[in-house]
Design brief:
The chain is of the alpha+beta class. The chain contains 2 helices and 6 strands; from the N terminus they run H-E-E-E-H-E-E-E. The radius of gyration is 17 Å and the shape is elongated. The chain starts with a helix and ends with a strand.
């Protein structure tokens, strides 16, 4: 059986290390950051070998919401599309980026008892800008196919 929480922690740690931005799991990160990510696990599908049915395989789907916001120390500032697109690109680089020479993931996800078989984009949830308060956000979804080791 694949445990979800350790894998979620590994995804959050890789995203934080690869982007240098704060990550909130299911909510805004502490400390009122100006730009950040929110990581949500939104689906889990389990399976395994047909004869043992031990649920030793799982597909976990995560949504990574990128948030660009105004700087409260600068009146009239606002979240920008350029900042939002930078956040989106960095998140994709962390989740899907591979070394062109070796084909290995640029940001490995190492969790005891779990082997990542595949990573892929899932459906794109789209943007949710809020012009009234100067915040821009967008969400991307990624699926991870896992097996027990």
């Amino acid at each position: 059986m694949i445990r979800t929480r350790p894998f979620t922690d590994a995804v959050a740690a890789a995203l934080a290390a690869g982007t240098g931005k704060p990550i909130g799991k299911g909510r805004r990160p502490d400390g009122k950051p100006l730009d950040y990510y929110i990581l949500w696990r939104i689906d889990r599908q389990t399976g395994g070998a047909p004869f043992s049915d031990l649920n030793e395989d799982a597909t976990l789907i995560y949504q990574i919401t990128c948030v660009s916001a105004p700087d409260p120390t600068k009146p009239g500032s606002f979240g920008s599309q350029a900042q939002l697109e930078w956040l989106e690109d960095k998140a994709r680089d962390v989740i899907l980026g591979r070394d062109p020479a070796t084909g290995l993931w640029l940001h490995p996800l190492t969790v005891p008892g779990i082997k990542v078989m595949a990573r892929r984009p899932d459906i794109e949830a789209g943007g949710t800008p809020d012009p009234a308060d100067g915040i821009m956000s967008s969400a991307s979804r990624f699926a991870f196919d896992l097996t027990s080791t």
